Amino acid sequence: MALIAQTDVSGALGSVKLVWTEGFSEGAAGTLVYQPNELQFLVLRNVDAAAPTTVTIKGALAPAVYAVPGTGQTIDLSAGFAVTIPFGESRHVCLRQIQRYLVGDITVTASGDPSNVDAALFI
Fold this sequence. Notes:
The protein is mainly beta. It contains no helices and eleven strands. 0% of the residues lie in helices and 38% in strands. The two termini are 21 Å apart.
């Protein structure tokens, strides 16, 4: 999959048609451009009728050790942010909420049969 296209819905009234990037090629990753000054949402849908799938959103330069403010704990962000999507359902990810994972070139990969995952990015 190539670049996941972004749809601007910020000034829209009523319904808006999202631009879907359909299906991940076997073993390939989608890419997206994170814009920290925008409120971006990534919508992922599992079109498989039988199996859940896990999608991982990963920045190439995400730190292996990140100190969680106020907790004294660290987490590893380098493996990416994983989202499990039940069969026939979708999940929305607010990219601002996972911004620490989105450092460097960003890839989106899927487990199982990646051709069963569609993606849409909007602001």
